[in-house]
Amino acid sequence: MAEELSGVTVVIIIALGILTFILLFIFAKRQIMRFALRSRRGPHLPIGHGAKKNLKKEIHRRVDLVPKIVYEPTVLNDNDSRYILPPGSQVAPFYYRLKACDDVKLLEKEITKQDPSLHRHPTDNLRAYLLNSLATPLNGVGHRLVQQFCDLYEHARHDPTEFGDEEYQMYSRILLKLLDAARLLKSYGPSRKLSPRGTPVRNKTQEKSRELFENKVREKREDSEINNKDNNETSV
């Protein structure tokens, strides 16, 4: 009897141990899932869960476009009382930097006004944009002018060294020249995609079609030459 009781006791102890292990495992798993959901930045369910395939694709496309949403605001307000100063007083040291950053938008607006297809996204490189846009009216001569303008713009925006009235006056003179060149875009008709040096960019589709056409012509010539040789041999 004592042996039977001891056996039953062992079974009960083993069962209780297994049950305790299962409960601890479930509790630990729930805690891990809870902490994972708290630390996770995204939604608990995938984006577009349960939606149709086309709708889900459109949702993902729009979500992917969110990082590309960039806006460059006007940083200087001319009506701000802080910048309306009596004669003889000095403006803030950052005034010319802000004005230079705003003035570049005048050039972009003028280029877009003359040719709506030449629009610059805030993430696009300004130097490449100006070289491509103004290559035709400047006729390759203004390459150095654009480089100087972009160097001064980057100086005003990023360089910690002084950017005062003298640098801004130089910047403004180059800006006026580029504005004059931008006003000539309309007279050149529709814009052409140009490289920074002013040479037209080759169209890859046209090159491929031309190569295919040349290959076909070459094959026809070879076939005709072979046929002519065969005819000559048979006649002989």
TrEMBL record:
Top-rank lineage group of the source organism: Eukaryota
Keyword entries, A-Z: Golgi apparatus, Membrane, Mitochondrion, Transmembrane, Transmembrane helix
GO CC terms, sorted: Golgi apparatus; membrane; mitochondrion
Ranges of Basic and acidic residues composition bias in the record: 204-236
Region (Disordered): 189-236
Regions crossing the membrane: 6-28
Pfam families, per the entry: NICE-3 (PF07406)
Compartment(s) where it occurs, according to its Swiss-Prot or TrEMBL record: Golgi apparatus; Membrane; Mitochondrion
Topological category with respect to the lipid bilayer: Single-pass membrane protein
Predominant location: Golgi
Function: General regulator of phagocytosis. Required to uptake Gram negative bacterium by macrophages.
PANTHER family referenced in this protein's UniProt entry, alphabetically: NICE-3, PROTEIN C1ORF43
Record-given protein name: NICE-3 family member
